[in-house]
Amino acid sequence: MPLELDASAPGFEKEFSAFLGRNRDTDENVDRIVADIVADVRKRGDAALVEYTKKFDRLDTDAKGLRVPDAERRALAARVPAEQRRALELAARRIEAFHRSLLPKDVEFTDTTGTRLGARYRPLDSVGVYVPGGTAAYPSSVLMNVVPAKVAGVKRIAMVVPTPDGVLNPLVMLAAEIAGADEIWRIGGAQAVAALAYGTETIGPVDKITGPGNAFVAAAKRRVFGQVGIDLIAGPSEILVVADRHNDPAWIAADLLSQAEHDASSQSVLIADDKEFARAVGRAVESELKVLPRAGIAGASWRDNGAIILVPDLGASAPIVDRIAAEHVELAMEPAAADALCREIRHAGAIFLGRHTPEAIGDYVAGTNHVLPTSRAARFSGGLGVADFLKRTSIVSCTPDALAELGPAALALAEAEGLGAHGRSIAIRLNRRS
Amino acid sequence: MPLELDASAPGFEKEFSAFLGRNRDTDENVDRIVADIVADVRKRGDAALVEYTKKFDRLDTDAKGLRVPDAERRALAARVPAEQRRALELAARRIEAFHRSLLPKDVEFTDTTGTRLGARYRPLDSVGVYVPGGTAAYPSSVLMNVVPAKVAGVKRIAMVVPTPDGVLNPLVMLAAEIAGADEIWRIGGAQAVAALAYGTETIGPVDKITGPGNAFVAAAKRRVFGQVGIDLIAGPSEILVVADRHNDPAWIAADLLSQAEHDASSQSVLIADDKEFARAVGRAVESELKVLPRAGIAGASWRDNGAIILVPDLGASAPIVDRIAAEHVELAMEPAAADALCREIRHAGAIFLGRHTPEAIGDYVAGTNHVLPTSRAARFSGGLGVADFLKRTSIVSCTPDALAELGPAALALAEAEGLGAHGRSIAIRLNRRS
User: Fold this and answer.
1) Residues of B59-69 as b/e, b for ≥16 C-beta within 10 angstroms?
2) Averaged confidence pLDDT in chain A
3) What is the pLDDT of residues A121-175, one digit of tens each?
4) Dist CA B203 CA B157 (whole Å)
5) Which value, to the nearest 10 degrees, does the dihedral of the CA atoms of residues A248, A251, A253, A259 take?
6) Catalytic residue list contains B327
7) Is residue B390 part of a domain?
8) CATH number of the domain that A176 lies in?
9) What range does the domain containing B409 cover?
10) Most Cβ neighbours (<10 Å): which of A53, B31, B260, B328?
11) Is B328 a catalytic residue?
């Protein structure tokens, strides 16, 4: 059974804090293994990459064979049924349109001193996108990483995907084609991250690496940060559903399970103001679990990490929602109530409003990004977006008059900080001593 | 003597690549020490923090004594001479105005399906700002971190500054007062980063940690990333000056030395199209070094890490500028030429245009931020800004009709990915089987 908490009961604060403090991240000691792999690929390049790929993915090829030829990609992509192709194309169009609306505008103005100031956004030259392979294939994640990079204007997008036993997924190939990935490499794990960060004889280095992966991939990304940029570190999925008693319990149960089915360490939480309704949802979860293909995973997640929190007033639940700071928050209530609560919430990766917006719509076709902050990172981070594929450059231009007006203050501060050459570079232009 | 390269000479590419590949980061093996300190502060809280502060900063106090009382801050700040106070106030006003111009706007629109989509920016609740202490005191860095956080709307800003032998710097206290830091703690090093990330009995945890520090601070920030957000990892300072022969060599020499004086591992590079001019700058650097207070540091930096690169045409130098991807780029030439070259440059933390815009103006009073990407990180990152203190939440709201239009595609993709509960959460609302 999932944890049950009552926000009105004595002891709630203590239990709720303990719940928030639970660590769901798999605590594998992968750091040393990853450090060795990264150093080895950095040093030996292709030779190391080929060895690790043979060892971990059972793919025996030379370095040239690591790249998926365009013809092979096209042939595989052509196998995808028309309905799935149309769905991917719709998703790509909508992701593109939404992300285009988020493009930042350059700023430039001249202030009263005559100083021209600006901030200008330019795309990264090249990006590496990590796509998990193996048992699960997520073409939607290809779109969520590659489309925003294209919208930002990135010229070179190198996608890596491990292919255990050499098997490539047609849907992933089609998604790469639709989104416009420039290169596809059949490599994965820490060795793929190292190859993208430092380059090898065959693979050119990139400027940033994005995309989800297992603990080895996450540790490798953390290790190469600085050499290249990285996006957020993805943890287990989460959903928090705030639902009133007028919902169909089966709908809410399906929503809770939609994240629980990702992984046993995923977390699904229901906030309700009606005990009977909450119990009905619990029962609906149990009956859904009888028919779900991934019932084993979803059931373990719900039992071990799930929670039902009863509150006296859903309209006043924002502080609890904020403390959970979930990846996905669903507000299953009438539109006006959902809007009002949404305005009060400060910490959430994405918010889904009303009874007809299941979280899964955001995973595929809403247009928003499904790469979102987990493990309470919504306190300080948003999801992946175009900004991740752009960087800002500041612009400053002083006229002689502007420097005459601003220079003395800068000189005073340089001297206060004991930085003589800083001061000299200003004083010499003002024809002053420093 | 600094390295001299000629872009027209055979072998340039090889020498230039080797120059770019030089690692100026101090390669101290601090990771294990930092891991122990962070784990200890996380586990033992105040007790560990007090012990480390006594050991490293020779400050013997209980946990309560770690906080600087408002009265003490005010008393110290009041000692700052009026000219420096006015300079700090001018800098703060200008930083505030420029950063206000960078505030992102919320996006919200309803598309043709009737789906409402949005992106909304909210400030972080709390931020920790690391301010280096000891030999160098940088009040300007206090402004550069705290003012953008205030502009973003952060409610709680906790500043930490190590105070070796208990000595607090009046200018740093005044800058904290002007910028509006809410708490000041006399702690530093990895122990301060750990205290901010996890909290202790006395210090509340924060959501993000920004600010420069030594190798221990950088390693600690990297380690707590995920628990809290962090800003970019600051490396040794850099300046790249692109200058034509009509500049006064002494002005350019002063600019090159303004970054060289930060640290022996700093890097100053001159790109020129005139050999005689470049030599004159080299001579001017030598004579400046005779009078600079920090000549030892600046001279070592110039000799060991500096470079002069001769190019046939400054107007075509953008590709070389981009490969260096420097923290600061100065374009010391006529306004029209500077503007034209500026448009071609893709990778730079900040660009300073014309003969009358020494980089140091950006360190203090231009209004732009002086926390900028180093070590070629300008390829993928901009400097500190208001965006670092905000996070984005996506908003999705479907009407029943919109879900009917978009749902089938989402369902097709969920089934293609083998995620049954994702599909169910949509199908159940469409009254379809999945």
Assistant:
1) beeebeebbbe
2) 95
3) 999 999 999 998 866 689 999 999 999 999 999 999 999 999 999 899 999 999 9
4) 12
5) -150
6) yes
7) no
8) 3.40.50.1980
9) 398-430
10) B260
11) yes
